[in-house]
Amino acid sequence: MKKLSLILRIVAILASAAAVALFFISKGKLAEKQTSLEQARAVTQATQSELETANSKITSLSTQLSTERQSLADTKGKLESIRSEMYTAKQEVTRTQQQLRETKNTIAELENVATRLRTDLVKTEESLAAASKEAELARLEERVEELIKSNDLLKQDLLASESPEQSASATHKPASTAIESGYQSGFTPSSAVAVQPATIGAATTVASISTSNGLIILDTSPELGLSVGSEVTLIEDLKALGKIRITQVTEQFAVANILPGTRLRGLSKGDTIKVMH
Fold first, then answer.
1. What is the tens place of the pLDDT at every residue in 62-113?
2. Which fold has domain 200-276?
3. Which of 102, 186, 198, 276 has CB 3.0 to 4.6 Å from 233, enough for a Cys bridge?
């Protein structure tokens, strides 16, 4: 019994020692576990903080992305509006250019028509002046014929006066009568008014000139004081070039005949001259 009791005591002591050893071992492991748990908690908190920061950044980036998308949508809308305005402006420019080309063509046609009308007007004025000159030449020819007839009558009277069959008194009488009749038929007293003092008028421009036809056309104005039938002297650089007779006057032109003895070879279209009344 004593041995059993001793054995039990020894076993109890060993169990106590083992329990103590296990206690210390488990306590050390528990401390390690506690340290590991604290470290894990710290890591978890750090990870949680980083995760929250990442979530915050994701939220901020998402908001920024939404803003950028909205801004991009607005910019796209503005770009489409600008493209539409540019297309409309391009159409307006194209239409304006087309209208400008049409206007230029119309102006060119009007200029051609104006040039053609001016040419036709000059030709008409020249033809009218030529017709007037022909009428004047016809009158001059009639006058020359009258003078020739008068001269023939004078010759006949002179031949008759020289006949020996007539007396000296009779000879003188028919001669004087014939002379008187000749002068009466060939001479007409002038009824022109007294010559007025010469005055130099305003300057004008030669619109057309034809020395071979004896015609000249001047640009006219009320300051020139030209009238049909008046004879004026052309002045250039204070030098008298010669005389012309006005045959027709319009609002723009004055047509005149170049009088005999007048030489205007140095005068050409576009020259500036003055007229002396």
1. 899 999 999 999 999 999 999 999 999 999 999 999 999 998 888 888 888 8
2. Thrombin, subunit H (2.40.10)
3. 276
Residue type, 17: A
d(CA 196, CA 222): 20
CA dihedral 111, 114, 115, 121 (to 10 degrees): 180
Instruction: Tell me the C-alpha distance between 155 and 177, whole Å.
Output: 13
Global pTM? 0.33
Structure tokens at 62: 């998402």
- pLDDT category, 262, cuts 50, 70, 90? confident
